[in-house]
Amino acid sequence: MKLIGSKPSPYVRRLRLWLAAEDYDYVQLDILGPEGREALRQHTPAMKIPVLIDSEHTVYDSRVIYEYLNQKLKKERLSWEQQNTLTLIDAVNDSFVIMIMMDRSCIDNSQDILIANLQRDRIEQTLSILEQKCQGGEFSQWQYPAICLYCLLDWIEFRELYELGAYPALQAFKQASEAQPMVNDTDPRV
Ligand SMILES: N[C@@H](CCC(=O)N[C@@H](CS)C(=O)NCC(=O)O)C(=O)O
Q1: Domain final position from 48, 73, 98
Q2: Where do the GST N-terminal domain residues begin and end (predicted)?
Q3: Alpha-carbon distance 58 to 126, whole Å?
Q4: Phi and psi dihedrals of 166, rounded to 5?
Q5: What is the pLDDT of residues 5-44, one digit of tens each?
């Protein structure tokens, strides 16, 4: 079994943390460099990481890879509420990716323009709900939703995307999660 990813990607890191106790090969690419793009093209027309290759199956998208592996490894069962939480985490993560891509394309993402306003609205709404869920104990077990949340929060800090001072429960959760397996080994700063 082979996971294709990159070190900074929070979508890849979540799977690496969730698979901390499993035996598999990890292939790291620079997806914006010419060699990495060529390698990625061999595995997915969507040109996004992560990609999982497991004998005859090639699986795209972290959520689908999680479902595929969870069915295979029978690690945990998520409630519909937890599935919704995953959707919220993905939504805010995707919004931050759009903001970064605007910035890298020399589009000022602090402007009052539709694409930036939509992302800011989603980020504000979603982080508030995640703060409430965290206060309510929804991330007390180190299951996939907690792992995804940790990867999002640490990536926000790493990329200096947002000031999380208004979300004390999320900050405390992030700090407490730093002792979990593979967190140090997958730190994008190292
Ligand atoms: N929904 C996808 C999102 C994956 C994603 O956006 N990955 C980024 C890296 S963090 C990527 O590959 N971006 C390349 C691109 O957008 O061209 C998932 O959960 O796997």
Answers
A1: 73
A2: 1-77
A3: 31
A4: -80, 0
A5: 999 999 999 999 999 999 999 999 999 999 999 999 999 9
Residue 70 CB partners (closer than 8 Å, separation 6+): 76, 144
The alpha carbon of 94 and the centre of ligand 1 are apart by a number of angstroms equal to 8
**Helix extents (H) in 105-180:** 114-135, 144-158, 168-177
Ligand 1 geometric centre to CA of 48 (Å)? 5
- In terms of domains, do 29 and 97 share one? no
Mutating to test ligand 1, I would choose from 15, 32, 49, 61 the residue with most ligand atoms within 8 A of its C-beta, which is 49
Range of the structural domain that residue 17 is part of = 2-73
End of a domain among 30, 48, 73?
Answer: 73
Ligand 1 atom index nearest CA of 10: 10
Note whether 161 and 112 are same-domain residues: yes
Overall pTM > 0.90: yes
Q: What is the mean pLDDT of residues 147-158?
A: 98
* Res 153: pLDDT: 98
Average pLDDT over residues 134-148: 98
